[in-house]
Specification:
- The structure is a single chain.
- The chain is of the alpha/beta class.
- It is 35% helix and 20% strand.
- It contains 18 helices and 23 strands.
- It has a 10-stranded mixed sheet, with helices on both faces.
- A hairpin with a 2-residue loop joins strand 5 and strand 6.
- Helix 1 packs across helix 16, helix 2 packs antiparallel against helix 18 and helix 4 packs across helix 10.
- The chain is globular and about 75 Å long.
- The termini are close together.
- About 3% of the residues have low confidence.
- The protein binds inosinic acid.
- Inosinic acid binds next to helix 6.
C-alpha cells in the first residue's frame, strides 16, 4: 500500500463516484479481463491523502453490518505500527457505541471478547482511550476490565476513560425493555440501553461520567432514579422489580445470558458505588481532549481509531429502522473525541468479510439466504439435542436444501458465525457490492481490509451481488432504509471459489490461490477501493498485507 499526497490528476475518487453512480458500467469488461483473459492486479492502488493528514494515524470502521473482524484488524494495525522503530506508543481510541459491540482478538492461547474496551490490550506499548462519544455502564466496564486482566495482566494503568463519556445504567436498559413492552415486540436492540442513553444525551436528560465522579453523585443519580420511577409508574411498571435487564457480570461468570432486576434505589446506587470506587482506585478518568492535544504533534505516537458496529448500522445512514444509535462512520471521530477530524486521518480503512456478509437483528437484506428452519429457538433445540452446531444439524437433517442454503450453513459453521456475547446464530447473506459501494462512500474510507479469505473451498462457487434492478430489469440504487430494499432484485455473478486453507500459508499476495487473487481484484475493480490487506484465519499471524 502506498500513501500518496493528493495531486491535481488524482482520479481514485472519480472512479469510485463513477462506479457508485453507474454500477454496471464496467461489469462485463471486468469479468472478461479478470476471469477470461487473466489480466488483473491487486493491492496496486494508492491511498490518496491530503497535506493536513497526520502521519501514523488510522481509522478502522465496518462497511457492512458489524462483526466484520474490526477488533483483530486493530490488533494487527498496532503490530504494523510497532514494527516502525520510530513509533514508541500506539493510542487506540473507541469513540462511539457502548458494550453492544463484540470485538474478538487472539494471540497464542489467549482469546478475548472485548465489548467497550479498545482492542489494545495485547500490546504493552499501546494505550486505550474510551472517549466521550461512547456510552459507559460503570459496573459492566469493571467486569470487562477484570475479565481482560485475568487473562493478560494489568491494563487499567494503560486505560483512559473520558470524563465526558455518556453514562449508561440499568435505568436506561429498563427503558429499552419498557419500550419493547409498549411496542409489543423486541425493538431489535441488544438490550444494553444504548439507544436510550444516546436519546437522553440529545434531549439533555442524560448524565455523563462527570456526574458519576462528582461529590454529589449519590443525590444526582438518585434523582434520576426517582424520575424513572415516576415515569414508569405512568405505565403501571414498578422500576424496582418488574423488568429484567442484562446482568453482564453473571453472564461473563456463567458464560450464559443472565438478567437481573433494577432493584430498589438503594440497591441500584450501591451497585454503582462499587464500580465508582473501582474507577477511582484505578485512576482511569482522564481529560482526553488534553491527552490528544499533547500527543498530536508527537511523531513517536501512532493513533488507531476503532469503530464499532458498521456503516450499515449507522443511525442516519444504515438499514433503518434496524440500526444502532451512533455515528459509525469515520467522521464520527469528530463528535466522539471533540478533537480529531476525519481529514487528520490518512489511513481510513473499511473492513468487510470477503466471501459473504453476516447480519444480526431483525433486518432482511436483499441478499438474505432464507433457511428452512431459521428460528433461533428451533436451532438452539437442535443444538442441545444433537450436541452439534445448529447448521451441521440442519445439514444432516435435511436433504432438500438448495445449494445456496447448504453454502450458507457451511459458512456459518466454518466461520463460526455465532454472536460473540449471545451465541445467537448469525444470518448469512451473499456479498453485496451495491451495499458495499454505498457504505464505503458514505463512511469516508479510502481503502479496504477484507477478512475471512479462508472461508471458501475450490468446490463451491461464490455468488456475489453486483447491483440491483427492479422487477422490469431497470437498475435501482441501494438507499439506506429497509423500505427501499423490499422490492429490489439483486443481480448475481457466480465466481469460482478457492482453497481457503491454502490461503493461510501464503506469505505474499502472489502465493494466494489464483481464484482468491481474482476475486479480490474483481472487488477492487467493482468498487474502486484498494484492498490493502486480508485475513486468512482467526489468529494474529493470519494477516497478509497486499
Ligand atoms: P443497539 O445498538 O443495542 O441499539 O442494537 C441495534 C441494532 O444493532 C441491533 O440489530 C443489534 O443487533 C445491532 N448491533 C449493535 N451492535 C452490534 C455489533 O457490534 N455487531 C453487529 N450488530 C450490532
Amino acid at each position: 500500500m502506498i500513501l500518496r499526497q493528493k495531486s491535481s490528476n488524482d482520479s481514485q475518487s472519480s472512479i469510485q463516484t463513477g462506479l457508485f453512480l453507474y454500477p454496471t458500467k464496467n461489469l462485463l469488461k471486468d469479468i472478461e479481463s479478470i476471469y477470461r483473459e487473466g489480466i488483473f492486479e491487486i493491492g496496486e492502488s494508492e491511498i490518496v491523502i491530503t497535506e493536513d493528514t497526520r502521519a501514523s494515524t488510522s481509522a478502522i470502521v465496518g462497511v457492512a453490518l458489524g462483526d466484520e473482524g474490526k477488533g483483530r484488524i486493530v490488533d494487527n494495525t498496532i503490530e504494523e505500527y510497532l514494527k516502525d522503530k520510530k513509533i514508541k506508543k500506539v493510542v487506540v481510541v473507541r469513540y462511539q457505541g457502548g458494550n453492544n459491540a463484540g470485538h474478538t482478538i487472539e494471540k497464542g492461547r489467549i482469546k478475548l471478547a472485548l465489548h467497550v474496551v479498545p482492542s489494545f490490550v495485547l500490546h504493552k506499548k499501546a494505550v486505550g482511550v474510551i472517549d466521550r462519544g461512547t456510552v459507559i455502564h460503570p459496573e459492566d466496564l469493571q467486569t470487562e476490565v477484570s475479565y481482560i486482566e485475568a487473562a493478560v495482566g494489568n491494563i487499567s494503568e494503560r486505560l483512559l476513560l473520558s470524563q465526558d463519556a455518556i453514562l449508561n445504567t440499568d435505568l436506561l436498559r429498563a427503558e429499552e425493555m419498557k419500550n419493547r413492552i409498549i411496542e409489543g415486540k423486541a425493538a431489535g436492540g441488544t438490550g444494553r440501553g444504548i439507544s436510550p442513553s444516546y436519546a437522553h444525551h440529545i434531549d439533555r436528560l442524560g448524565l455523563t461520567i462527570c456526574d458519576l465522579m462528582a461529590e454529589d453523585w449519590w443525590e444526582v443519580l438518585g434523582k434520576q432514579y426517582d424520575r424513572y420511577d415516576k415515569e414508569f409508574a405512568c405505565f403501571d411498571i414498578d422500576i424496582a422489580k418488574d423488568l429484567d435487564v442484562p446482568d453482564f457480570d453473571n453472564t461473563v461468570k456463567l458464560k450464559k445470558s443472565q438478567t437481573r432486576k433494577v432493584g430498589s434505589k438503594k440497591t441500584y446506587l450501591e451497585r454503582i458505588a462499587t464500580a465508582r470506587e473501582w474507577i477511582l482506585k484505578n485512576k482511569i478518568i482522564a481529560d482526553t481532549f488534553s491527552f490528544h492535544k499533547k500527543n498530536y504533534q508527537d511523531t513517536s505516537v501512532a493513533y488507531v481509531f476503532e469503530g464499532a458496529q458498521a456503516a450499515g448500522l449507522d443511525s442516519w445512514l444504515g438499514t433503518r429502522p434496524d440500526v444502532t444509535a451512533s455515528n459509525t462512520r469515520v467522521d464520527g471521530v469528530k463528535e466522539g473525541t471533540a478533537f480529531w477530524q476525519a481529514q487528520d486521518i490518512g489511513q481510513r480503512i473499511g473492513v468487510f468479510k470477503i466471501p459473504y456478509t453476516s447480519s444480526v437483528g431483525a433486518r432482511r437484506m436483499p441478499t438474505h439466504i432464507e433457511l428452512p428452519i431459521n428460528s433461533k429457538t428451533q436451532n438452539s433445540k437442535l443444538k442441545t439435542q444433537n450436541g452439534l452446531g445448529d447448521s451441521i444439524a440442519l445439514l444432516q437433517n435435511d436433504n432438500h436444501l438448495t445449494e445456496d442454503q447448504k453454502w450458507a450453513l457451511w459458512v456459518r459453521e466454518e466461520a463460526h458465525e455465532y454472536g460473540t456475547t449471545t451465541g445467537r446464530p448469525r444470518d448469512i447473506t451473499f456479498l453485496d457490492l451495491e451495499f458495499l459501494r454505498y457504505n464505503a462512500r458514505m463512511s469516508g474510507v479510502n481503502a479496504f481490509i477484507g477478512t475471512h479469505l479462508d472461508t471458501a473451498t475450490d468446490e463451491q462457487q461464490i455468488k456475489v451481488c453486483t447491483h440491483y434492478t427492479d422487477k422490469d430489469g431497470e437498475n435501482v440504487a441501494y438507499q439506506p432504509g429497509l423500505q427501499y430494499q423490499k422490492d429490489v432484485v439483486p443481480q448475481y455473478v457466480s465466481l469460482p471459489g478457492w482453497d481457503g486453507k491454502a490461503c493461510q500459508s501464503a506469505k505474499s499476495k502472489d502465493e494466494l490461490p489464483i481464484h482468491a487473487q481474482k476475486f479480490l481484484s474483481f472487488i477492487e475493480a467493482q468498487t474502486g477501493f484498494p484492498i490493502i490487506a486480508v485475513t486468512t484465519g482467526p489468529k494474529r499471524e493470519h494477516y497478509l498485507s497486499l
